[in-house]
Amino acid sequence: MADLEINPKNKKQRTQLDDTAPSGLPVDENHFLSGNPAHWSVEEVCQFISSLQGCEDLASQFLSQEIDGQALMLLKEEHLMSTMNIKLGPALKICASINSLKD
Fold first, then answer.
1. If DSSP codes are grouped into helix, strand and coil, which group holds residue 66?
2. Residue 32's domain is classified under what CATH number?
3. For residue 32, what pLDDT band results from cuts at 50, 70 and 90?
4. SS3 74
5. pTM value?
6. Is the pLDDT confidence value at 21 over 50?
7. How many domains does the chain have?
Protein backbone atom coordinates (compact mmCIF):
# COMPACT_ATOMS: atom_id res chain seq x y z
CA MET A 1 0.00 0.00 0.00
CA ALA A 2 1.32 3.46 -0.82
CA ASP A 3 0.87 6.60 1.26
CA LEU A 4 1.04 9.98 -0.44
CA GLU A 5 2.70 12.74 1.56
CA ILE A 6 3.26 16.43 0.84
CA ASN A 7 6.60 17.92 1.86
CA PRO A 8 5.61 21.34 3.28
CA LYS A 9 9.02 22.94 2.56
CA ASN A 10 9.00 22.50 -1.21
CA LYS A 11 5.43 21.28 -1.69
CA LYS A 12 6.61 18.40 -3.88
CA GLN A 13 4.76 15.16 -3.50
CA ARG A 14 6.61 12.13 -2.25
CA THR A 15 5.42 8.55 -2.28
CA GLN A 16 6.59 6.07 0.33
CA LEU A 17 5.84 2.36 0.25
CA ASP A 18 4.74 0.97 3.59
CA ASP A 19 6.62 -1.88 5.27
CA THR A 20 4.32 -4.52 3.79
CA ALA A 21 5.06 -3.55 0.18
CA PRO A 22 6.64 -6.42 -1.77
CA SER A 23 9.60 -4.34 -2.95
CA GLY A 24 10.19 -2.66 0.39
CA LEU A 25 12.00 0.15 -1.43
CA PRO A 26 11.04 3.75 -0.68
CA VAL A 27 10.57 6.29 -3.42
CA ASP A 28 12.33 9.63 -3.01
CA GLU A 29 11.12 13.12 -3.95
CA ASN A 30 11.82 12.48 -7.64
CA HIS A 31 9.90 9.18 -7.55
CA PHE A 32 13.07 7.17 -8.17
CA LEU A 33 13.50 3.94 -6.28
CA SER A 34 16.42 3.60 -3.93
CA GLY A 35 18.87 0.76 -3.81
CA ASN A 36 21.01 -0.67 -6.57
CA PRO A 37 19.09 -0.27 -9.87
CA ALA A 38 20.80 -3.38 -11.26
CA HIS A 39 18.86 -5.40 -8.66
CA TRP A 40 15.43 -3.93 -9.43
CA SER A 41 12.62 -6.29 -10.37
CA VAL A 42 10.60 -5.84 -13.56
CA GLU A 43 7.88 -4.14 -11.50
CA GLU A 44 10.35 -1.70 -9.97
CA VAL A 45 11.71 -0.86 -13.43
CA CYS A 46 8.14 -0.19 -14.57
CA GLN A 47 7.63 2.12 -11.60
CA PHE A 48 10.84 3.98 -12.52
CA ILE A 49 9.78 4.35 -16.18
CA SER A 50 6.31 5.52 -15.10
CA SER A 51 7.92 8.26 -13.01
CA LEU A 52 9.65 9.82 -16.03
CA GLN A 53 7.82 12.78 -17.56
CA GLY A 54 6.30 11.81 -20.89
CA CYS A 55 7.08 8.11 -20.42
CA GLU A 56 4.20 7.07 -18.15
CA ASP A 57 2.51 5.01 -20.88
CA LEU A 58 5.70 3.10 -21.76
CA ALA A 59 5.93 1.05 -18.57
CA SER A 60 3.72 -1.70 -20.02
CA GLN A 61 6.28 -2.26 -22.79
CA PHE A 62 9.02 -2.76 -20.21
CA LEU A 63 6.76 -5.24 -18.42
CA SER A 64 6.00 -7.20 -21.60
CA GLN A 65 9.70 -7.27 -22.53
CA GLU A 66 10.56 -8.46 -18.98
CA ILE A 67 13.14 -5.72 -18.45
CA ASP A 68 14.51 -5.93 -14.94
CA GLY A 69 17.20 -3.74 -13.40
CA GLN A 70 20.08 -5.64 -14.95
CA ALA A 71 18.55 -5.36 -18.43
CA LEU A 72 17.69 -1.69 -17.81
CA MET A 73 21.36 -0.91 -17.19
CA LEU A 74 22.24 -2.45 -20.58
CA LEU A 75 19.61 -0.61 -22.64
CA LYS A 76 20.67 1.76 -25.42
CA GLU A 77 18.62 4.16 -27.57
CA GLU A 78 18.79 1.65 -30.44
CA HIS A 79 17.12 -1.05 -28.33
CA LEU A 80 14.32 1.27 -27.27
CA MET A 81 13.69 2.59 -30.77
CA SER A 82 14.14 -0.53 -32.92
CA THR A 83 13.01 -3.35 -30.65
CA MET A 84 10.43 -1.55 -28.52
CA ASN A 85 9.32 1.01 -31.14
CA ILE A 86 9.73 3.91 -28.72
CA LYS A 87 10.05 7.34 -30.33
CA LEU A 88 13.36 9.19 -30.20
CA GLY A 89 12.31 11.79 -27.61
CA PRO A 90 11.18 9.35 -24.92
CA ALA A 91 14.09 7.02 -25.76
CA LEU A 92 16.56 9.83 -25.11
CA LYS A 93 14.83 10.74 -21.83
CA ILE A 94 14.91 7.13 -20.67
CA CYS A 95 18.58 6.70 -21.57
CA ALA A 96 19.53 9.97 -19.87
CA SER A 97 17.73 8.80 -16.72
CA ILE A 98 19.45 5.42 -16.90
CA ASN A 99 22.82 7.16 -17.23
CA SER A 100 22.07 9.28 -14.16
CA LEU A 101 21.37 6.06 -12.23
CA LYS A 102 24.82 4.77 -13.20
CA ASP A 103 26.56 7.86 -11.79
1. coil
2. 1.10.150.50
3. low
4. helix
5. 0.68
6. no
7. 1
Single-letter amino acid code for the residue at 77: E
Q: Provide the residue range defining the domain that includes 74.
A: 2-102
Q: Where are the alpha helices (DSSP H) in 1-103?
A: 42-50, 59-64, 69-74, 77-78, 88-102
Residue closest to 17 by CA, chosen among 38, 37, 34, 41: 34
The DSSP letter of residue 5 is E
Q: What is the pLDDT of residues 57-73, one digit of tens each?
A: 999 999 999 999 999 99
CB 74 within 8 A of CB 101: no
d(Cα 79, Cα 22) in Å, to the nearest integer?
29
Percent of the chain with pLDDT over 70: 69
Residue 95 · residue 74 · CB < 8 Å: no
CA 72 centroid distance within chain: 9
List all residues 6 or more positions away from 2 whose beta carbon is below 8 Å from its beta carbon: 15, 16, 17, 18, 21
